[in-house]
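Protocol step 4 of 6: record predicted structures for both targets in the notebook before any analysis. Target 1:
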Amino acid sequence: MMKNLRTAMKTSISEVMETMFYIPVEFSEETTLLQSRISKTKAAMACQLEFTGDFSGHFTLLIPRDLLLQVTQNFLGESSGQIGDEQLSGTLTEMLNMICGNALSKLYPRTPFELGIPKMVDVSEIPDTQLFMIIESTHSKMAINISVD
């Protein structure tokens, strides 16, 4: 099941990032945040989304602030000077919501899943040893974790 979920997640991420945010992506092997060298400082933001259905779990997305700013500019059509923390958080939560909803519907099109409300997560609370799928864009990397209960 996890292999199929990861495959659906990769497809969903590619579709959402390219069509909604105009950013092509590629994937690296799963690794820990520490090994990936994605910074967990103030320069990164994270969001989590829980889901329930035939099985339950959550997705966690971690993205460097500079990449999120670029994504937000593309999504909102605004210049960086007009984008604040509220717009960044809104884009991040919407991005994760689109990715997860798309992935779950691709994997199980006839099974209803309920998505929770995406919530921002303190990056410092994410363990350095937690495994993440690394998503590479032309400018930076982000990471997503899928956890099934």
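Target 2:
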Amino acid sequence: MNGKTNNVKKYNGKLNVIGNQIQCLRIEKHLSLYQLSNMLQLIGIDIPKPSLQNIESGKRIVKEYEFYAICKVLDVPMEKMLENFINELESQ
């Protein structure tokens, strides 16, 4: 270990609530992880393919600026990306 403690809270066993939505939208738009990574780089956000893969699988936290950029390149409102999460919280 490197001396750090892993005290990150998970929601339903994942580090983010939008990974599945990103994957669904990416596939719906016929984009590969590599293509999505390139689209993000064109607007100045560097998220390599392996990192995107980890985001989609819930193994990586999404920073707020990354969240906005992903929504922008996938052409989806941030609220829509969070819709399933919001509905789940409101139904409890």
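Step 5 preliminary note on target 2. The chain has a mean pLDDT of 91. Helices lie at 19-28, 33-42, 49-56, 64-74, 78-81, 83-90.
Proceed to step 6 after PI sign-off.
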